[in-house]
Amino acid sequence: MPREIITLQVGQCGNQIGTEFWKQLCAEHAISPDGIIEDFATLGGDRKDVFFYQADDDHYIPRALLLDLEPRVINSIRTGSHRNLYNPENIFLSKEGGGAGNNWAVGYEQGEKFSEDIVDMIDREADGSDSLEGFVLIHSIAGGTGSGMGSFLLEKLNDRYPKKLVQTYSVFPNQSQQEASDVVVQPYNSMLTLKRLTLNADCVVVLDNTALNRIATDRLHIPTPTFSQTNALVSTVMAASTTTLRYPGYMNNDLIGLIASLIPTTRCHFLMTGYTPITIDANIQMNVRKTSVLDVMRRLLSPKNIMVSASTRRGCYISILNIIQGDVDPGQVHKSLQRIRERKMASFIPWGPASIQVALSRKSPYVETAHRVSGLMLANHTSIANLFARTQAGYDKLRNKAAFLDVYRKTETFKDSLDEFDSSRDIVHNLIEEYRACEQPDYISWGAPAAPADDHRMQQ
């Protein structure tokens, strides 16, 4: 029985990436932009029901909610090539249409204000599922709607569906020194959202704009990558990370099976991704001469292919899952793992199993690719703490000067005090400390209360 997943795409970034994701899924399952199965799609064996359901006239509709506070992106979806794909009842657009003004608190309060309408849409989708497994939230953490309304939804999903998994694809802002952000308050928004991602999500796939731009520039030789090009990279990763759910094998064929092995402790649930060979479209492609299993697995461990700007040369892996797609002999996988172990290409935590897990997945028969084998790595690595530390440093810089706080004080959440900021910073600081503690052999006892000092005297 398929375990259904409901997708919530929130804000400008979430809806742009979500649209690319649904286009990719439609191509892989041979579903036309109107939701009709193509005539040439005669091969079975895929599970469309995880992400789609069928209407009475047999056309497929995504289990997706499109939520935004300003109309630009939603209107472009409504007039775009896949406008007939979505259920119009699942599109929520604020009537005021002013957006959240890049303010987390405004986005959060708008979420509260329209909570009845949004929860009603979520409940309707959940009730239409036979065996709902969980939710996937797609958003950005730096703006107003994706961060603020996204945070509100994470809390709401936890309260309303405590036993369902919540996975997010969270886009972190560009933190490179060369390129200043348009959003001056992004460290505040990021810090407030990170608190909710730490406390209310079961798994966060971190997608970092700094790294995505670097990959597009260095690996794909695009001098100035556009949002649509980096979004195409993200949708490729999202589609690849769900292949084992949509083309089930004997392992990792549901979301819990996929993420349980990657997240040994509750709070350290932030995953980085790597993908190879990287392509955006047929015209722009990396020059990959050979794609054997070993070659793909070696490339996945290369810091150049990792979509987070935190070097994996420092720190250590907590866990790795490689999803290998294509024409693969399991014997090759075994040999490749042996070679990687012999050459010590990946260093693991001292207190857990030092092994790379591999899931083999079929490729879509309806999408032609130039390469025989492709791979996605989902990894839990301690160096991701550096990304959070940079966010924290940016936050401290603004907070110490009390810069731009007036725009937050005007909202109900911060009208009386700024405690929410301090609480968020404490939680993110503890998260950084926990990831760093993971590198030590005594991590298992980290955070445990110390034994009373006079116990020893009593025993004597």
Report on this model:
By secondary structure, this protein is α/β, with parallel strands linked by helices. The protein is 39% helix and 17% strand. The protein has helices at 11-28, 72-78, 104-113, 115-127, 145-160, 186-200, 209-218, 227-241, 243-246, 255-260, 293-300, 330-342, 384-400, 406-409, 419-437, 455-459; strands spanning 4-10, 52-54, 60-62, 64-68, 91-93, 132-140, 165-172, 203-208, 270-276, 317-326, 356-361, 373-381. The strands form two sheets. The chain has a ten-stranded mixed beta sheet, with helices on both faces.
Summed up, what is this model?
Helices cover 39% and strands 17% of the residues. The protein has 460 residues and is α/β, with parallel strands linked by helices.
Across the major sheet, the strand order is: 5-4-1-6-7-8-9-12-10-11
Main sheet characteristics: 10 strands, mixed
* Total strand segments: 12
- Could you say which overall geometry the principal axes of the C-alpha atoms support? globular
Strand content: 15-25%
Query: Which sequence of SSEs, written as H and E, runs from N to C?
Result: EHEEEHEHHEHEHEHHHHEHEHEEHHHH
Taking pLDDT < 50 over at least 5 consecutive residues as the criterion, the unreliable ranges are 453-460
Mean pLDDT: 88
The percent range for helix content is 25-40%
Structural class: alpha/beta
Amino-to-carboxy terminus distance: 61 Å
Number of helices: 16
Cα gyration radius (Å): 22 Å
